Amino acid sequence: MLLAVAWLLKDWPARVHSLCAQALFTRSRLAEHVDQLPFWLTSVADTHLDQRRYLPNAAEIGSAGHYLQAHGLEVTPRVLVNRLGLTPDCKHLVWQLWREQ
Length: 101
Description:
The chain is built from 7 helices and no strands. It is mainly α.
């Protein structure tokens, strides 16, 4: 077992990241409470294994929409998503939050 641990740690964190990526092993599968892991492991999990997507809150979407309006640009789902740096699959949620403003 110690030889396996030594092998994993030899090229830290690249080898662990590579193995986790191949196994589709994500941050949430590492531990139930990732924040209770030691810093050296948490930092690698956050950097290399975190598959969560960031979704802006209503205030951030509102600010982006108002910015576009202030600059004379039309507020559309595509433009909002692009301005917020999100992927196109977020358009529906972003547009819904914008219209609720």
